[in-house]
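Action item from last week, closing it out:
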Amino acid sequence: MKSLPEILSLLWGTSRAPRVAAAYRAACEAHPLFLRDLAVFCNAAAPIAGAREFDRGVEEGKRRVWLHVARLAAIQPEDFVSITDTQNEHD
C-alpha cells in the first residue's frame, strides 16, 4: 500500500499535496458536526455489518473513505470513538 504522501502526490502533484492535506485539516477542525456525521456514516468506530457480501463491501468502502479523511486531517484512531459520540453537544 502506498503511503499518504505518495497517494497525495500521485493525485495532486507534489506542489499541491500539502495544501490538500491542510484543507482537510482546516475543514474538519472548523466543522465538528460535519466530521461527526461523516464518521458515524462511515462506520469509524462500529463493526462492519451486512446481510450480504455486497452490503458488507459497501460498508467497508465507506470506512475506507473515513480512513482517508482521518489520515489527511491527522485524526488519530484513538479519537474515533469520541468523534462518533452522537450525544456530544459541543459541535
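Closing note: Residues 53-72 form the longest helix (20 residues).
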